[in-house]
Structure to design on (94 residues):
């Protein structure tokens, strides 16, 4: 298993700038009223996305995370593509 550093841990920005691969937790929620999905991240402030399907939601999350990570790193994209850990809130809450 490759070394990875989680976004939000102390020093994650330094690790990212050094090229250490990042991992990012994203929690998926289902809204029964609108029959759609939304997701947020306990690791990356500001990450909140919606989608009509899980595939759409995952792509929106990846796109938004890329922008937010670049903003967090002063306009520089992380050298390595982050690994996303998607978690379904409904399953974990059961």
């Amino acid at each position: 298993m490759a070394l990875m550093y989680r976004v939000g841990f102390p020093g994650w920005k330094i690790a990212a700038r050094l090229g250490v691969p990042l991992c990012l937790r994203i929690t998926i929620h289902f809204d029964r009223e609108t029959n759609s999905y939304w997701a947020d991240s306990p690791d990356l402030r500001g990450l909140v996305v919606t989608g009509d399907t899980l595939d759409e939601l995952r792509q929106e999350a990846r796109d938004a995370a890329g922008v937010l990570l670049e903003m967090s790193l002063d306009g520089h994209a992380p050298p390595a593509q982050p690994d996303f850990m998607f978690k379904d809130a409904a399953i974990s809450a059961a």
In short: The longest strand covers residues 22-31. The longest helix spans residues 54-72.
